[in-house]
Design a protein that fits this description.
Elements (H helix, E strand, L loop, with lengths): L14 H8 L5 E2 L10 E2 L1 E3 L8 H18 L3 E6 L2 E6 L1 H10 L5 E2 L1 H7 L12 H12 L4 H20 L7 E2 H18 L7 H13 L10 H26 L5 H7 L10 H32 L1 H13 L14 H13 L5 E6 L3 E3 L2 E3 L4 E5 H4 L44 H18 E4 L8 E2 L5 E2 L4 E6 L1
Parallel strand pairs: 2-10, 3-4, 5-11
Antiparallel strand pairs: 1-3, 4-5, 6-8, 7-15, 8-11, 9-10, 12-15, 13-14
The structure holds protoporphyrin IX containing FE.
């Protein structure tokens, strides 16, 4: 059974938004294709003077991307945030970009938005250098290590949710954000940030949100991001010598001690840069995925009951990688929640050479985005895409198999999320412990609004009515 919902990123529009949404600008070519190439130019437009289409992207999010996809096509360009951005929308265009067969697309696209804040994180490295770092980092994500981390995730979550004070308007997003930060500091560093916790949480939030600042000067949102980055560097640098000397089994230590058979290792700077990126990559995405899951379970009590029955049947033992298999309903609901609210809604690249994107000529030096949230909502690939319908992932339907890039919450290609298994375990463990202890609802007719400015953020903190069972 499924229940109708409206598009998850549909925000209320004021008259200016409505005008921007409807406005059709004359189309222009991004660049002239080389003579004799047989390629077509990329069509698009620059939008408003100075601002380009930044306002539409920030305020209308998915609605706007979908409109351009429908009116211009899977490959189009727009000016936004001071640059020309090519949108590679729909699974076919996404596949060309993420599979990156001719190595035309580099991670420098991310560099433009978040480079100053997540300098030399794994996601910002390219080609051979990326491969080198990814192979080393993989040593911190082996099956044995994941099993070890899992045990501790359960402990942190249990003691964290025991401190929750249920109520009618419980701000669950903030509570989950604290919990996933506690998980990250325990698993990643075998420590608690203690008195530094608030300061560092703020630093993470600032660094993530800075990427879509309209003014790229050391003031306002951009400036807060730069200060956040400095604070995080100082924190990890200070903790590094003790970690190098320790034999603890957390992720920080795993990076310090990672050594391939060829003797390759990470430098101190590498470890600091990777830790800052990993904390961000793990923390925000897991918070969003869990928040979306809690929201949909609150809205669909029949699914909550079904998931709870499976969790209760497992008894009091902490979850393990093996016992997760006994929670099939949670698996379906999580997949559907990440389809409706992709924690990383768009992925960014930059062309390092001229290339052919579905028969269009894209010149070197252009930012290209792929849009998970759009691919997840196309009726060509999903039945009633705006509806919450976890059974679409069931073995006898598997709508996600309609195309390799129809469903991509963890991306694809060589930069596919390295923490996919860890992140999935973490979110399921969180949900499992919540289901065992609490029941929750959202008011009739309530629909959370996801702010699409950076990674999706519930505008009102997602208040739920939470009761102990
Ligand atoms: C529900 C949770 C998560 C989601 C939805 C998610 C999503 C993603 C996506 C979409 C990408 C690809 C970005 C791109 O291609 O440009 C990515 C990359 C990455 N993620 Fe995750 N992630 C999650 C959890 C985690 C966790 C828990 C960790 C670490 C423990 C992590 C670490 C990374 C890293 C290091 C990369 C870069 C990989 C590379 O460039 O080779 N993520 N993630």
């Amino acid at each position: 059974m499924s229940t109708a919902v409206r598009a998850p990123y549909a925000l209320d529009r004021n008259p200016l938004d409505e005008w921007l949404f409807r406005k059709e600008w004359p189309l222009r070519d991004l660049a002239t294709p080389p003579a004799g190439s047989g390629l077509r130019p990329v069509p698009g437009d620059a939008g408003l003077p100075v601002l380009g289409h930044s306002l539409e992207m920030l305020r209308l999010g998915l609605d706007y991307a979908m409109r351009r996809y429908r009116t211009i096509g899977p490959v189009s360009w727009a000016r936004a945030f001071g640059v020309r951005v090519v949108s590679a929308s729909g699974p076919e265009a996404t596949q060309v970009v993420l599979a990156n067969r001719d190595k035309a697309y580099s991670q420098q696209g991310w560099e433009y938005f978040i480079g100053p804040f997540f300098n030399r994180g794994l996601m910002l490295l390219d080609f051979d250098e990326h491969l080198y770092h990814r192979r080393l980092m993989q040593l911190a994500f082996t099956a044995d290590r994941l099993s070890g981390y899992m045990g501790r995730v359960g402990e942190v979550v249990r003691s964290g949710v025991d401190t929750w004070r249920p109520g009618d308007r419980f701000p669950v997003y903030r509570a989950l954000k604290q919990l996933t930060l506690d998980v990250a500091t325990t698993i990643f560093m075998a420590s608690s940030m203690g008195a530094d916790s608030d300061r560092l949480t703020r630093a993470f939030v600032d660094t993530v949100r800075a990427g879509t600042a309209l003014v790229r000067l050391p003031v306002g949102r951009w400036g807060a991001g730069l200060r956040g980055r400095r604070m995080l560097e100082d924190y990890f640098r200070g903790a590094l010598p003790a970690k190098r000397a320790s034999d603890s089994d957390d992720l920080f230590a795993a990076l310090c001690h990672a050594r391939t058979d060829d003797g390759e290792t990470f430098s101190d700077e590498d470890v600091v840069n990777h830790m800052i990126f990993l904390m961000m990559a793990a923390h925000d995405t897991s918070t969003i995925a869990t928040s979306a899951l809690v929201y949909y379970l609150g809205k669909h009590p029949e699914w909550q009951d079904r998931a709870r029955a499976e969790s209760l049947a497992l008894g009091d033992e902490p979850l393990t990688v093996e016992s997760l298999a006994a929670l099939p309903t949670l698996d379906l609901v999580l997949k559907e929640s990440m389809r409706l609210v992709a924690p990383v809604p768009w992925m960014v690249r930059k062309t390092v050479r001229d290339t052919d994107l579905l028969g269009h000529h894209v010149p070197a030096g252009v930012i290209v985005v792929t849009l998970a949230w759009l691919n997840h909502m196309l009726p060509e690939h999903w039945s009633n895409p705006f509806e919450f319908d976890p059974d679409r992932f069931d073995e006898d339907r598997r709508e996600d198999k309609s195309h390799r890039f129809a469903y991509m919450p963890f991306g694809g290609g060589v930069h596919k999320c390295i923490g996919m298994h860890f992140g999935t375990y973490e979110v399921k463990t969180l949900a499992h412990e919540l289901l065992r202890r609490f029941e929750w609802t959202v008011p009739d007719g309530y629909e959370v609004r996801w702010d699409p400015t950076a990674l999706p953020l519930p505008k009102d903190g997602l208040p739920i009515s939470l009761r102990r069972r």
